[in-house]
Amino acid sequence: xxxxxxxxxxxxxxxxxxxxxxxxxxxxxxxxxxxxxxxxxxxxxxxxxxxxxxxxxxxxxxxxxxxxxxxxxxxxxxxxxxxxxxxxxxxxxxxxxxxxxxxxxxxxxxxxxxxxxxxxxxxxxxxxxxxxxxxxxxxxxxxxxxxxxxxxxxxxxxxxxxxxxxxxxxxxxxxxxxxxxxxxxxxxxxxxxxxxxxxxxxxxxxxxxxxxxxxxxxxxxxxxxxxxxxxxxxxxxxxxxxxxxxxxxxxxxx
Length: 254
Ligand code: MG
Hints:
Blueprint: E1 2-8, E2 11-18, E3 21-25, E4 35-41, E5 46-48, E6 55-60, H1 64-69, E7 79-84, E8 88-89, E9 94-97, E10 104-106, E11 108-114, E12 130-137, E13 140-141, H2 142-148, H3 152-156, E14 161-168, E15 178-183, E16 186-192, H4 200-208, E17 218-220, E18 228-230, E19 235-240, E20 244-252
Bound molecules: magnesium ion.
């Protein structure tokens, strides 16, 4: 099942995508999945980010080949940072290239969307707390990341967390999915989540030992090798096997 969030005639709702049609949900998908009579054509609505996270918990160096390209070793525990809810944008929305940066990179990632409140969750029960999976572009001002040492500025600009285009609920094994980035139609990243240093169950369990994960929160599970810069006017696409493609254009800051 593909869960979308959309606006139509000034109103925002969640829905279930069925072919080219969206059946609107009565509530949020965290409360229930009941649909009514309301149906829209996919082409007639604007898709939004499929959830509204209070936080995105993101992983650093969670693929060995990416750690190697940065001259680092894989960490012995998950290395986490936060991206604010205000950094989220939806499919086809513009990534704004900040005036403050000279180097803005794409990072294609598997996003885990939390379905119910999770605290002190074991690895065995971790997937029970997942609503589904979505594409994430962990956009990064690489020059500022190097300069600051800390990640808040480099990862936290508005528009630096494209999510979507929907939440796919029918992924049997999140630890075996192809993750790719395309820049202007050319493939730049090609990895598989089986190469993550820490898999999805471990990440949920680990993070829930630290902080409460709320419905709609997203874990951005890290990026494989091949990250690189984007320029104003570029079109970047994150493709995730079994989910779909998340496309955004880069625009200058006004
Ligand atoms: Mg990342």
